[in-house]
Write a structure and sequence with these properties.
The complex is a heterodimer of chains A (119) and B (120). Chain A has 119 residues and is mainly β. Chain A is 0% helix and 50% strand. Chain A starts with a strand and ends with a strand. The chains are: A mainly beta (119), B mainly beta (120).
């Protein structure tokens, strides 16, 4: 079974600075997707960025970028020029790319990291 | 983008009663929906996978008779908490999978806004 681990329960960053959130995962599959979700106080799940495992190039979305190390099974999120609105809980998630009775396309989440942004 | 609506957003019920939460995909057909439970400052715990026209698949440790899931149409799945108790109080969130077969493209899952359940 796949697992996702986020070892940083809480992180803080000064506004305009850069912060990196860590995520490791365990899987025996070769094809999968990885995601970072943001959950603000409203509790709405917001997709931040996604990475296809078959792509070597790290995904980037504006101020958000990932460092995907497939061999190390690591998938960290870097937030540049942090803004007050970035304060939220961030979840790393795994999703199998295969589909069948045991893989229904479900997301497997890490424990989450609460990010505080200091003005 | 695709929209998933969850209703009600907040509900308070008396202990021993049942409460139903709806999850609707508004602009796409969802053959598969997922129900999660989230405790404060914790992760989303998958409760069950809801498949249109068939029985839901429950995760280990989740009581099927307590958390009834029905996916009667391609746009609606419901979670009914039966004989609710205060320990069932939590945040419940659904997500819907757009499309069928392998998750080509990765991002075909859309989340509802969630529902706060308080059992008094």
């Amino acid at each position: 079974a796949q697992t996702v681990t986020q070892s940083q329960p809480e992180m803080s960053v000064q506004e305009a600075e850069t912060v990196t959130l860590s995520c490791t995962y365990d899987t025996s599959e070769s094809d999968y997707y990885l995601f970072w979700y943001k959950q603000p106080p409203s509790r709405q799940m917001i997709l931040v960025i996604r990475q296809e495992a078959y792509k070597q190039q790290n995904a980037t979305e504006n101020r958000f970028s990932v460092n995907f190390q497939k061999a190390a099974k690591s998938f960290s999120l870097k937030i540049s020029d942090s803004q007050l609105g970035d304060a939220a809980m961030y979840f790393c998630a795994y999703r199998s790319a295969t589909y069948g009775s045991s893989n229904t396309g479900k997301l497997i989440f890490g424990q989450g990291t609460t990010l505080q942004v200091k003005p | 983008g695709a929209v998933v609506s969850q209703h009600p957003s907040r509900v308070i019920c008396k202990s021993g009663t049942s409460v139903k939460i709806e999850c609707r995909s508004l602009d796409f057909q969802a053959t598969t929906m997922f129900w999660y439970r989230q405790f404060p400052k914790q992760s989303l715990m998958l409760m069950a996978t809801s498949n249109e026209g068939s029985k839901a698949t429950y995760e280990q440790g989740v009581e099927k008779d307590k958390f009834l899931i029905n996916h009667a149409s391609l746009t609606l799945s419901t979670l009914t908490v039966t004989s609710a108790h205060p320990e069932d109080s939590s945040f419940y969130i659904c997500s819907a999978r757009k499309g069928r077969g392998p998750p080509v493209g990765g991002n075909t899952i859309y989340f509802g806004e969630g529902s706060w359940l308080t059992v008094v």
